[in-house]
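Consider the following assembly input.
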Amino acid sequence: MSGGDEAQLLNGTSRIKGKEALYRNIGAANALAGAIRTTLGPKGLDKMLVSENGSVKITNDGVTVLKNAKIEHPIAKMLIDIATNQENTVHDGTTSSVLLASELLQNAWELYVKGIHPSIIANGYSLAYEKSTELIESLAINSTKDQFLEAVTKTALSGKGGLLLQEKLAILACDAAKGITTHTEEGGEIANPNNIKIISKKGGIVTDTYLVEGLVLAKQACSPDMERNHKKGTILIIDGGIEKRKPTITTKITLSDPSMITAFREKELELISLQIEKIVALNPTIVVCRDGIDDSAIRLLEQNEITAYRRVERDDLELLARTCSASIVASPTTANKEDLGAFQYSNEENWSGIKHWILKGTKQNGMTLVMRGSNDVLLQEIENSFSDALGVACQTIEKGKVLPGGGATQMALSRNLKTWSHEFERRESLAILAYADALEIIPRTLATNAGLDPIDQILALNAAQASAKPDIGNKLGLNINTFMICDMVESGIIESIQNHQQSLAGSTAAAISILRIDDVLWAKNDPTFPEGIGGEDEIE
Ligand code: ADP
Ligand code: MG
């Protein structure tokens, strides 16, 4: 295509190419990282977020800042995606991932201006990443439920809320994760955080939050005359209701004879009775429905001494099914004996005037976190922190491997990569060195945010790791509480291996894909680069 044809085809499209495209994209990534840099680590500062309607939120969490900012730039959005993905998959390490991606790009820019082609830098980064994943496995330390689990969970919570709350939530998350752990046939362990239900009970103080064995739902039996306390029994779970059928389309029926109305109603009652007969034949202690239960059906269930709960949400039905080993059925008419589940006990308690149903299953121990707090905003914050801590605890149990925190792992990776880069004679070795240097952004930022000199700290940490035996040296990091370089495992500053694996994978992939862009086409009539980050500076 000739230049003229191309220009005609792209009429109305703004465009930046080559060096300028790369420069501006890296500028955007750097600006985004700059927005959250100061939140990293336990001494990271908080950000105050003020929404359009004036509501205020104070947070120390990188991903929360990014999600709340109205960011339009596509490159910045890519980095927000890696943070969101990090949050969703490993529940921690969001700020670190964005900082690392930005640093990888910054170092790539320095190589680019020296004349190294972006595809060579991208290749070097891929090689360094592959090597890092191998190195991470060799740096990892085996952990068990009783060793390191609490430390990993506490480290993940560091900086989130006060120390007392962190301590409390870490212990609860570990207890909950241990409580729902089951063994696989191959000898491994599975802990599914979805088996924990979280409910809030407004009032009290945050540290009154507690864990209940079994599931707690803010529900009560359909009729006051139904038995509420059962020791052992069976449960039928229905993904529907026991109700009169409502027409699915709007219809108009003209009745010529008043007796037809009675016949209509009788037929409906007959259908409900048939469903109840089917249930009674299965003889469950409790019936639970996602939808409603008709008054006539409630009476019949009551007569047959079956306790019924209605309008239970689908997620809760699934929790009940898992904890009682029941199968959820579409309707009572299709239910079999094998679909019934079993429970150890079921009762109701009155909490602050609201009836709660508490059920303990038999197979897998479902558990409920009862959050206490004086207002909704606080309760939401506790729920978010607890969910992250629980996710981290469950993953640590399943994987059984951890890594030293406080920048120790990044420093060890960096040092090993630098040595390994000597094996390459080609230009890729420079990119491997740039990758190794980028990893130092984590200990460097931890030091800066704690008010320490980053250059002195990096030099001291490097020297300390290099002069010790590798198995000790690789655990040396920067303890921000004591301002000392020491063994991170002994100091209890430990992280899950998945956190590091995902962080490296996400930031490397983002950096490489940004490096490969050499032409940006904006489907806009406005010829200016989108407002905000990285748009106006001159290329150096
Ligand atoms: P992220 O969103 O990346 O998880 P955080 O603000 O939670 O960011 O900070 C995590 C970093 O802080 C990790 O590198 C972790 O090892 C480190 N860290 C946590 N507690 C300490 C501590 N007491 N001393 C030094 N580093 C710490
Ligand atoms: Mg964290």
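Residues 525-540 have pLDDT under 50 and may be disordered. Ask yourself how this observation constrains the way the partners meet.
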